[in-house]
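Hi R.,

Here's the chain you asked about this morning:
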Amino acid sequence: MNYLRRFLLIVFHSILYIFIGAFFLVGLIRTGILIHSRPKTFLPEDVPEAPVALVLGAGLNRDGSPGVVLRDRVETAAELYFSGKVEKLLMSGDNVSQYYNEPGAMFDYALSLGVPDEDIVLDPAGIRTYDSCYRARDIFGVNQLIIVTQAFHLPRALFICNALNIEAYGVSADDANYNRRGYIFWWAREIPASSAAVWDVYFARSTPILGQPEPIFP
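And the predicted structure, written out as tokens:
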């Protein structure tokens, strides 16, 4: 019985130490990504000019219109466009079916804000942030861009694009009064998501859905 108890204690402590080590590593990765992104994050009026703004997708309302988070991203991107910071808007999001189309919703909303349709480019296969950055480079031929998303998401997006050799700057689209509980959840979710981003970039190196090149600037 004493041997069994000793064995169980060893197993318990081993699992506990592994858990603590993993928790520390995940926190360290998130901290590193936050530090990396800080000098690359700007206010809309201060961000360096770039050819393209990469607008990352987010949830839609039941009627297919952009949710509040996505509206803020499109509005911020339109602000960059009208101020001359960018020439084109690359709307990258999930278009899993004809009933769910983030890029299409972004396109319609940008048009309603006055952005000309010839300066809006759609990427229907930006299912993940990694996919959006990868496809911006390999499909749309973009090597310099401004990422537009919320502050909780921006550090990870900047890390991924920079790791894929894209010169990326970031502008936060936090314009609305978001639900406090939801915003805390989004920030918390970024902790494991940051570790997943490191895995994608340095270890998995997966290739997203590609296709024929469609350079924005032929």
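The chain has a mean pLDDT of 91.

Let me know if you need anything else.
M.
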